[in-house]
Amino acid sequence: MKAIILAAGRGSRMKKLTDERPKCLLELAGKALLDWQLEALRAAEIDEISIVTGYKRECLKGRGLVEFHNADWEDTNMLSSLATADEWLESGPCVISYSDIFYESRAVQLLNSSDQPIAITYDSNWLELWKKRFGDPLLDAETFRLWSDNTLAEIGKPPANLEEIQGQYMGLLRFTPQGWNEVKRIRSALSVHEKNSMHMTGVLQKVIENNRIKIDAVKYDGKWGEVDSEDDLGIYKYD
Prior knowledge:
Helix content is 28%, strand content 24%. The protein has 8 helices and 13 strands. It has helices at residues 33-43, 78-83, 86-91, 105-112, 127-134, 177-188, 192-197, 200-210; strands spanning 2-7, 27-28, 31-32, 48-53, 66-69, 94-98, 101-103, 118-123, 144-146, 152-155, 168-175, 215-219, 224-226. The chain has a 7-stranded mixed beta sheet with strand order 5-4-1-6-11-8-12. The protein has a two-stranded antiparallel ribbon with strand order 2-3. A two-stranded antiparallel ribbon has the order 7-13. Helix 6 crosses helix 8. It is globular and about 45 Å long.
């Protein structure tokens, strides 16, 4: 098993905090977000880890990671960054981690236990955290619905109410080569603009609609969080 950390973007919503470094190097409880991720991945016995760089790539050297580089990071999206690691994704299962999150090794272990071509972790107890972060959780949340077999039924759409949100997508997922090739097939049919603007949840929804493979939704109830603004850094109690 390999892991790919997506760290090409600047994190502009962090304002001056990312003037000199990528968002994944911001510190939470005295440790960079990237180091929280590396610790969790290695504790889950994943030793082959790569990072997709873009903004301030020179700041991310020296951690023993394989580098893939998205030279067009300013004009493309996370999926375009992931595509730079195609050789890894084609060769075997890969855990994919957004670079602005933290989690425990158990989340990675749960992903690795899935037998589906695509698996994602989710937090069913998301609501209290989103109330702290946004006041009204519907300001940021997206739909997340499951089938009775715990595979994903819908993701990433604007919700009309809280009943349409059975969990929060965490930004931690796993592709087998079969799952990645389905994503590539979907993206190959898009225009250049669509390809560069479609978010990860958008392509996951396309996978659901095409109904060629299943997406396993793996429930995780451990510590985790997403750092999307300066205020987020003061919300989490992580030690």
